[in-house]
Amino acid sequence: MTSDNDHGSPSVVQLIIWKSVHGVMATFFLLCAIAQVNDPDPFIWMTLYIVPAMLGIVAIVSASITDNPVYKWLVVIHIGACIVGMAYSVASIGQFTDNPMKKEEGREFTGLLIVTVWLTFCRFNWINNGSNTKPIQMSVILTIAVVMCVIPMAAWSVCLIVQSPSSPYHCADHRDVMQD
Length: 180
Hints:
Layout lengths: L11 H24 L6 H20 L7 H25 L10 H21 L10 H27 L7 H11 L1
């Protein structure tokens, strides 16, 4: 992927990839929010997933908005909320004597970690602010972004496809709904 000029501005292909990755992650986070409907505290978890989905949609519609200070502060505030949630989840899990993914808190931690990593990555790697970014750096950023969006989607797909007695309870419930 080459840039359109010598100043490191992203090419059309790079912008399409960047927006596509945001679209995949926005879809993923919206699906996560929908999955929280049957959770004991759905409004907390739905909000934690809807915010990054909306931030991703806004980045798709107007890439330049990501340079707006309000947008940047929303990202930072949401990252902070997720970090607090992860600390609470770790404190709630207790000892790691068993697979933490078998506990609700472990799955909540994982969701918060995905949101935090994604938003942190996006906060510090805006593709549209490429004036000082070399083409090879942009290619690396895009590659990391693609990998980061494939991993959670693949993990969730495994949860939905693999029918195992050791599957987390919420995955089993979701599979039953999908088969009806």
